Structures are given as structure tokens and as C-alpha cells.
Amino acid sequence: MADTQFTLDLNDDQKEVRDWVHGFAADVIRPAAAEWDEREETPWPIIQEAAKIGLYSLDFYAQQFFDPTGLGIPVTMEELFWGDAGIALSIVGTGLAAVGVLANGTEEQIGTWVPQMYGDVNDVKVAAFCSSEPDAGSDVAAMRTRAVHDEAKDEWVLSGTKTWATNGGIADVHVVVAVVDPELGSKGHASFIVPPGTPGLSQGQKFKKHGIRASHTAEVVLDDVRVPGHCLLGGKEKLDERLARARERAKGGERVKNAAMATFEASRPAVGAQAVGIARAAYEVALDYAQTRVQFGRPIIDNQGVAFQLADMRTRVDAARLLVWRASWMAAAGRKFESAEGSMSKLYAGETAKAVTAQAMQILGGNGYTREYPVERMHRDAAIYSVFEGTSEIQRLVIARSLSDVPIR
Ligand SMILES: Cc1cc2nc3c(=O)[nH]c(=O)nc-3n(C[C@H](O)[C@H](O)[C@H](O)COP(=O)(O)OP(=O)(O)OC[C@H]3O[C@@H](n4cnc5c(N)ncnc54)[C@H](O)[C@@H]3O)c2cc1C
């Protein structure tokens, strides 16, 4: 008898989550999108609304994260970002910092810091993950922010400048990646918690951006920031062991995969799902418009030139979602990304969001070019998806390297 176990159907719990998140995206996020895009500010009241219903909470994301099929997070992301990418990123940006702690922290560190990142319903907080630097974007190994251990006080002293940090400077808890052993390149990095109110951490420039303008992006300056020893994620013993192993391998000339890079690879499908949400939103607006806009005495969708564009848009959105779901399922099932499937999903979904939002603008004609309609904003928002969490070129590099032993640069 045929094995009928394989299914792409969401189960009842997943459908419930999808519909619940969609309801919030449609009723609360989408109507506020244009306003917060113009204000270019963190939409605190909306984060608070999300917190009130449990949609901005550690519990909710942990539950989705541990969905054994892997689809809890991508389904949630797609619906939130369908509502609006800038606001949605303000809601899920904390998750990036939380994942940084979940990936590297001890159980005690996870229990102490991750709940603090979200605050509580009456006093919501956000968190920031600070890795990128002015001279270390794609080239993470060029990072310069140093962390030096002051053994006498068992404190770490962090100094340097981080850039592009989502929620940087407005966060309560900052997770900062810094160099502990410059000889080891990216294997000599470690992550630290900078607790709320720590002296020496300040916000530098806040960036005025092309899109996702409701999401705060800024430099974070670390001027001899002292944090207690227990703020080193994973603890000193584990760090020393890891560095010793890396030194051994470096001596033997062995190339080792960077743990932080492996974490990024695993988080990429979630970012791809965000792009799918934007692309689907723009496609839906365009489909609706094409059916109602009349030119030459007939709806413009009556023309193959328009209908075929919509067919391509829908096909790309579905294909992107399938790549995202495959990678999410693989990650949850503990399958290794042998062919950089995480990168494939982020690359294809990010490029799809850019292409589909551009096509949607074209279908809306002059209206598509104005801020009276949402596709112009969606197109600006989509542009970040070939840049952050690894540019499209870096995704191609990761995929290309997985294909053969040729050391492609
Ligand atoms: C809105 C926003 C939010 C962000 N949020 C965060 C955050 O929360 N935390 C954080 O740490 N970082 C964050 N980032 C940083 C983001 O991850 C980096 O911008 C990204 O990794 C690219 O780095 P870069 O901007 O320095 O570009 P560069 O690395 O300088 O790249 C410039 C161009 O060169 C290309 N390029 C570089 N190297 C290669 C190569 N080897 N082969 C081919 N092409 C190459 C790139 O693809 C790109 O097109 C954010 C960025 C933005 C814009």
C-alpha cells in the first residue's frame, strides 16, 4: 500500500495559529502600516497590542520554534509580514537576539535573559543582536570589536562600534558578538549579553532607510563596556575548550565551519518566510486591482500581458514558500543542509519579494507609484531581503561552495 504520510497540509493547530496571526496582521498591522512607515519610529503601541494577546511573547515563539514539523515559525512570519514588514520586524526583531542566546547560552542564561528581552504586557521591551560592523558586513571575520577578560574582577570589557543593529540602542538587552582571540578569525568570536543600563553602551547614528522604516536600525557604540563574567554566553569553560580546539585545527591547517555561520544558515528560512509574506501581499493587491481596473472597456486582467504576469508572480510566491518549508522541515528534523538549503530558501524568497513587488507596482500603473496604495511601500520593504541576514551574493556563495570541493571566492 502506498505510504500516504507525506503531506503539505497544515495541521489544525498550525491552521489556528495562521488564522490568529493573520487576523492581527489584517486588523491591527496593515491599517497602521502607512502611518509608521512615514513616522520612521518603532511602533510601540502595536508591539504592546501584540503583547496583550500573547503574540509578542517568548512563550508564543518558543511554541512555534518547537513545532516538530518546522512550519510554526515560517507560517507565523509569512502572516505577520503579509501585514507589514516594518511593523512585523519591530515585533520579531527581538527574536534574533533571543536566538543568539538560545544557540549559545547555558540554560541559566536562557532562563535569565530571554524573558527580559520581551519585558511584560505593561512594560514591553525589545532586544538587539549586534554583529555587523562598519568594516565587517559580509566579511564577518574582519570584526574588530574586542572583548578582553579582566581576570581579577571576572569581568569582560567590550570596546568597538557595531552598526546596522535592529533595535540597537533602544533595546533593553543587547547581544554583542566580539573578538576574544584575533588570531582565530571568526572562530575567535564569542557572544555577550550587555544587560540593561550598562554604562558605556550608547546608540550612535540612527539610519534613515529606504524601507522597513518602522523598524529601528542604528549604530551601537561600546566604550569600555564592563559586563560580569556570567554574561559570556556559554560560559568561560566552554569558550576555552572551543578556542583550544580551534587552535589545534588551525595548526593542522584544517578548515572548520564557523558555529555562528551555521546558526545563520539555520535561521535563514525564517527570513525567507518574511519575504514570502511581503511577496504574497503585493501579489494579492495586484490581483485585486487587475480585476477591477478597467481600460479599453475590460478589466486589465483580461489581457494576457497582465494575467501572465500574475501567473508568474503566484508561481514564484508558491515556489519560494516550498523552499522555505523544505528548509524549515529539514532543520526541525535535524537534517543537515548538505546543499545549503537554508541559503537557497532565503535567496529565492528574497529575490522573489523584490521581483513580485516590482511587478505589482507595474500592474497598478500610476497608482502603484504612489503612497496611496501599499505596493510602493512593499517594494521598498522587499529590497532589504537581498541584503540582510547575508546578501544574495553571499547566499549564492554558500550554495555554490556546497556543490563541489572547489574553493569558490
Ligand atoms: C535594515 C538593516 C537591518 C540589519 N539588522 C542587523 C542586525 O540586527 N544585526 C546585525 O548584526 N546586522 C544587521 N544588519 C547588517 C546586514 O546583515 C549587513 O548589511 C549585510 O550582512 C551586508 O553587509 P554590508 O552592508 O557591510 O555589505 P558588504 O559586505 O560591504 O557588501 C557590499 C556588496 O558587496 C557584495 N559582496 C561582498 N562580499 C562578496 C563576495 N565575497 N562575493 C560577492 N559579492 C560580495 C555584497 O553582496 C553586497 O552586494 C542589518 C542591515 C540592514 C540594512
UniProtKB/TrEMBL annotation:
The keyword Cell inner membrane does not apply. The keyword Flavoprotein applies. Coiled coil: none annotated. Its cofactor is FAD. It comes from the Bacteria. Residues 259-403 form the Acyl-CoA dehydrogenase/oxidase C-terminal domain. Residues 128-225 form the Acyl-CoA oxidase/dehydrogenase middle domain. This is Acyl-CoA dehydrogenase. It comes from Streptomyces cacaoi.
